[in-house]
Amino acid sequence: MSDFARRSSGWLLAISLIALGFSLVFGPEIGLLVLSAQLMLWLGFHLYHIGLLLRWLNRPAPGRIPEGYGAWHNVFMSLYRRARKQKQSKRKLASILDRFIHAGEAMPDGVVVLDEYDRIEWVNPMGVEHLGLDPITDVGNQILNLIRQPGFHTYMAAQSYSQPLILRSITPSERVLSIQLVPFDTTRKLLLSRDITQLERVQTVHRDFVANVSHELRTPLTVVGGFLETLSDMPTLDDHTVRQFLPMMLEQSRRMQSLVEDLLTLSRIENSPRSMQQETVNMTRMLDTLMVEAEGLSQGRHQIKLDNTCEHWLWGNAQELHSAFGNLVSNAVRYTPEGGSITLGWHAMDENRAVFSVSDTGIGIPREHLPRLTERFYRVDRGRSRGNGGTGLGLAIVKHVLARHHARLEVQSEAEKGSCFSVIFNAEQLTEAEI
Ligand code: ADP
Predict the structure, then answer these.
(1) Is 268 a residue whose pLDDT tops 80?
(2) Which helix (H) or strand (E) holds 166?
(3) DSSP 3-state assignment of 229?
(4) How far apart are CA 408 and CA 45, in angstroms?
(5) How many Å lie between the centroid of ligand 1 and the Cα of residue 426?
(6) pLDDT of residue 275
(7) Closest among 368, 374, 360, 361 to 408, alpha carbons compared
(8) Phi, psi for 65 (deg, rounded to 5)
(9) How far apart are CA 394 and CA 409, in angstroms?
């Protein structure tokens, strides 16, 4: 029996006994009168407390539980305890929800929660950025009205969410997004978006690279193969024809050889650890070597000058630096017509920087090509580059080597006038010359 029922039955018993006592002493009328008066008081007591309870239930605040007497005291106390417990668990739930919201907001992927009618319930900041949504006005709107791309509509209609959807340029920026819908809670869905622009770019570069290498190798291989076929079809080998074919075959095989060598250099630089072996590089000796190489390549067709005014040496990988500088020198020789001049320079730029430069009075490069020069296989004039033994990889090698030496390449060039390729080294790569 509950405390309330026990106390109530006790009161009822007491009231009845008092009324019985009165009726025995003063007669049944008086007894009845006393009984009614007591019942009225008892009823009033309970009505008063019921009133208090109703008033509190209308605006239940745990801090304002009414004071009760007798059995009602315990009723109100247990109400108070319950309300306090509820408030605590509400606070706990709110903090869990807050943490989930913060976690969702911190996610590097876009997250949109959709209700059963595909209306937006919640979207995190990355989802807003990826899908071009408005975090305030778009909530409650159908996602299909906001993302108009037909591919997205088909994806939503198909309801087969195992594969992600690739969406391009959903916002004004040139983005590529991978969209994935994840159903949950029987009717709702999570729409996840991931920016795969960079990944796509890498894949495209990789595809282009393989296609370019295949193309570069196919041409000389076809030429050599053609010559060999012609020779093998001849009933007897004619010495004159063989002598005619051999230099051409040799040229093509050299072309393949330099391409493979450049590819290996590039791959070695790309794959070797970032912390390469560094040493002091004697720039006086380096410039002398480059001069000898330039003269060897030029075969007396150009005037080659040296302008060395810097006292610093470099701190870096001599082999890599030689490969990068050598490519600039080789380009200057190959793209400067006979009679032109080429100058190798090593100067202090200011207190903290020094610059290695190769300038020529060659064919120059039209301005629009300058930003793409260091891309692999990028050439201003394909025919001319191949004609002088170029592989299209020289400046790509330069770019990688310089990145590893925290150096910067600057190109100044004017078509028909000449070019100047400058490599700027920071203080951290400069060392004092050793005697
Ligand atoms: P390539 O093997 O074709 O010379 P590079 O990567 O070394 O390849 O150079 C890329 C392109 O930049 C060349 O094809 C050429 O068009 C241009 N280029 C590089 N250096 C010079 C230069 N000194 N003068 C004119 N054009 C140049």
Answers:
(1) yes
(2) strand 165-168
(3) helix
(4) 92
(5) 25
(6) 66
(7) 374
(8) -70, 130
(9) 13
Q: Which helix (H) or strand (E) holds 94?
A: helix 71-106
Hey, which of 385, 410, 416 would you mutate to test ligand 1's pocket, going by the most ligand atoms within 8 Å of its Cβ? Answer: 385
Query: What is the pLDDT of the chain when averaged over all its residues?
Result: 90
> For residue range 369-386, what is the model confidence (pLDDT) as tens digits?
999 999 999 999 888 888
Condensed to tens digits (0 to 9), the pLDDT of residues 380-424 reads: 988 888 888 889 999 999 999 999 999 999 999 999 999 999 999
Q: Which residues lie with the beta carbon below 6 Å from any ligand 1 atom?
A: 327, 331-332, 335, 360, 362-365, 373, 378-381, 385, 390-396, 419
> Quick one: average pLDDT of 33-57?
90
Ligand 1: distance of its center to the CA of 372 in Å? 11
**Chain segment 299-338, per-residue pLDDT in tens:** 999 999 999 999 899 999 999 999 999 999 999 999 999 9
The predicted pLDDT at position 320 comes to: 93
What domains can be seen in the chain, in order of their start residue? 3-101 (no CATH), 108-195 (3.30.450.20), 201-271 (1.10.287.130), 279-432 (3.30.565.10)
Which long-range contacts link 369-375 to residues 24+ away (Cβ below 8 Å)? 370/411, 370/413, 373/411, 374/398, 374/399, 374/409
Residues of 78-98 as b/e, b for ≥16 C-beta within 10 angstroms? ebbeebeeeeeeeeeeeeeee
Q: Picking from 16-20, 165-169, 187-191, 360-364, which range would have the lowest pLDDT averaged per residue?
A: 165-169
Helix (H) or strand (E) holding 360: strand 354-360
Distance 320 CA to ligand 1 centre (A): 19
Chain-centre distance of CA 400, in angstroms?
A: 22
| AA letter at 58 | N
Q: Hey, which of 373, 376, 417 would you mutate to test ligand 1's pocket, going by the most ligand atoms within 8 Å of its Cβ?
A: 373
Cβ-in-10-Å burial (0-12, 13-18, 19+) of 9 comes to exposed
Measured by CA distance, the residue closest to atom 16 of ligand 1 is 380
Residue 174, pLDDT above cutoff 90: no
CA distance 412 to 420: 5
Q: Is the pLDDT of residue 345 over 90?
A: yes
pLDDT tens-digit profile of 203-246? 988 898 899 999 889 989 999 999 999 888 888 888 888 888 89
pTM above 0.90, yes or no: no
Ligand 1: atom nearest CA of 262 is: 2
* CA dist., res. 344 & res. 333, Å (int): 11
